[in-house]
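The methods section describes the discrete structure representation at length, but only in general terms. What matters is that the chain and its backbone geometry are given together, residue for residue. For illustration, here is how one protein appears when written out as sequence plus structure tokens:
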Amino acid sequence: MLSEVLDGLVKLLGPIATLSKDRKELKDTALRSISTALDETYLYYRDLENNITNRNNDREKLLSKYWSAAAVSLRHFDSELAIICDYKSEFWINPNNFDESRIQELGIKPGDVREAYRKMLSPNNKFTLSSRKK
């Protein structure tokens, strides 16, 4: 009886280890997607500020797609941050619909999102809205 239970437990260890590895890989993919969205956003703002480019609809469309992809990949790890990324995607569809107070209220300033991303880099740290600076 005891040996059957131990055999059963040993058989479970393989799938459990695989699930843990798969979850880490999914989280890494989610972190890469938000990193890409952040980097591309900062690069776009830099180019705007330095008059390298004017507002560019194609680039803003691409930013919307990056943020949408980040939202989807984050949904299993941090639903609040995923929603923030979704709002960021919506922002890039039409930035003129968002005034400064709405941006602040939704927590979609690039610095706020970057802070949340950096917290997600820690293996056991989850971002929450309550941890965000007001």
Notes: Residues 2-49 form the longest helix (48 residues). Helices lie at 2-49, 57-74, 79-93, 100-106, 110-121. Residues 21 and 118 are 21 Å apart (CA to CA). The chain has a mean pLDDT of 83.
